[in-house]
Amino acid sequence: MITEHYTRYEKARIVGARALQISMGAPVLIDDQSMNSLYLAKREFELGVIPITVKRNIVTR
To answer: Which residue segment(s) compose the domain that 26 sits in?
Structure first.
């Protein structure tokens, strides 16, 4: 299993995008009775089940 290390900006973008998806009716990927989309998105991120990837541009000089 590959563990990714995200910057705080990447984490904020991933969690924010997933929270928006959940609030717009996307299925929740974990078993939790909470109705708070931000809480659910954070839990999904912590558990590593969010199906969102980060594409980085590597600049070499």
So the answer is: 1-61
